[in-house]
Structures are given as structure tokens and as C-alpha cells.
Specification:
Layout lengths: L1 H20 L3 H33 L4 H31 L6 H26 L10
Helix pairs in contact: 1-2, 1-4, 2-3, 3-4
């Protein structure tokens, strides 16, 4: 389910980038709002389900507990940054006056998003698998 969220987020992010490159500002705004909804759902579910579950199940494993806590704190910071970015551009709207600034910031958000998704799926989510699946 979490990987499905990631796929949706990356797809919508691609739509944002494509719309921005073609100066389709209504398309950018629509995609930003969809991205915000999916991101909020993902962050909430991940925080309530994944981190809570992993913390409980792996409380006796110090290395895993450390990884979980680090990833949780980092995701909180990334979530805050992305949420501020989305709120700013959804409120002020993207248009010809701010498209260059928007595109530059979007690239930074995209890099952070891809890095985080990769690390979640390759390290954190593997902790979620039953031991028999290793």
C-alpha cells in the first residue's frame, strides 16, 4: 500500500513537472492539489500504521529502533518542508511571474522525494516484512 502511494506521488509529481514545463498553470495547480491530498494521506497512514507497528514489533532491536526513529524524524522534516512548499504555491498560485522560482524549488523537492522513497523502500519497508520473506 505504501509503495502504491509512492507510485502515485511520483506520477503526480511528473504531471506537475510536465505541466510546469509547458506553462500549463491550471494543470500545475490541479496536480499540486492532488499531490497534497495523496501526500497527506500517505504521511498520516505511514505515521499511524507503519512507524507505530515497527516501533512496537522491533522495540527489542536497538539498531532497527534507531533506524525507525531516524527515518521518522527525517520524514517529519521533509513532510514539513514539502507541505510548506505546497501550501505556498497552492495559495499564491503558479504563473508566468513565479514559474522559474517554482521550477527550481520543484527540482529540489523531486530530488528529496526520490531519495527518500528509495531509502524507505530499500531499508525501512524491509523491516515490515515477516521474517520468512527474507
Amino acid at each position: 500500500r505504501f509503495k502504491g502511494h509512492h507510485g502515485s506521488l511520483l506520477s503526480i509529481f511528473g504531471t506537475i513537472s510536465t505541466s510546469a514545463a509547458s506553462h500549463d498553470y491550471p494543470g500545475v495547480m490541479d496536480a499540486l492539489q492532488r499531490f497534497q491530498r495523496v501526500l497527506n494521506e500517505h504521511l498520516l497512514e505511514e505515521n499511524l500504521r507503519l512507524y507505530t507497528y515497527l516501533s512496537k514489533c522491533l522495540s527489542g532491536n536497538e539498531d532497527s529502533a534507531l533506524l525507525i526513529n531516524q527515518m521518522r524524524r527525517e520524514m517529519s522534516e521533509i513532510g514539513r518542508t514539502v507541505t510548506q512548499f505546497l501550501r505556498h504555491y497552492i495559495t499564491s498560485e503558479v504563473d508566468g511571474r513565479n514559474i522559474d522560482e517554482f521550477t527550481e524549488k520543484l527540482q529540489g523537492i523531486g530530488s528529496a522525494l526520490q531519495d527518500r522513497i528509495s531509502r524507505e523502500e530499500n531499508s525501512l519497508y524491509t523491516l515490515y516484512m515477516p521474517v520468512a520473506d527474507y
